[in-house]
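Here is a tokenized protein:
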Amino acid sequence: MPDIALAAALAGNRVLLCYGLLGEVMARLRPVGMDYMGAQADWLRSLGLPVAVVALPTAAPVAANAARIAAELTADPRPALVVGHSKGGLEALAALLHPGAAAQCRGFIALQSPFFGSPVADAVCGNRPLHRAADQALRQLGLGDGEGVRDLTTTSRRAWMAEHAAAIAALTASLPVVSAGTVLERAEHWHDQVYALTERWMRQQGAGPNDGLVPLDSALLPGAQQVVRRGGHRALVGGGQDRDPVAALRELLALVIRPSPQPAPVPHPPGR
């Protein structure tokens, strides 16, 4: 019954999915058990919604991918729900600031996006040999280049957010926007274990609670409705032990349809 009501409320809309860094690579691994937004796309289609993954070279600069998303929004007269994971959420936000783009958007959901940057990106870009190796690998994979990683640093992101603060405030006041972050508390499954080392390192660096790549306070967009859940950096987009990405998206879509009067965190209390 909840899905029937949701489908009725969203009828006439389309959905644009914006992958995060390396998302196109992870999506190709679905046949061998690695789900990345695939189950969510299948579920959205089962509701009768047209779903498209925006073709993004996910390591390209944020501004270049934002232009691609804005073009997708304005090329079709149907209103779109935009769902972006990680770097894809940053690019979707920037796209919605393009002239005419927000007018084509029904709502925006950002999943684990480093709006204020990631210390992991700082570490990669601060190590010249490592950054050069990452740049070469990304170019060989056809995903973009190292400038897309540099866009994720705390210095770059904080400057961008400060420059666009007024426009972001106007956007969140006029459009339903939800930002969701996660906190990795216990890495009990391999999906989260891959983030355990970086989660501890980030805490040691003073980043506070985080998902292994993105600090929680970086993932919560000012002015948006804010949701906090448990898990590593793929917890809201991939399956795994005690995970249900479809249920997570269902919850967030309900918030887009019925936005709260005042943005407020909706945390799950930390486990003890």
Notes: Residues 22 and 185 are 24 Å apart (CA to CA). The first strand starts at residue 14 and ends at 18.
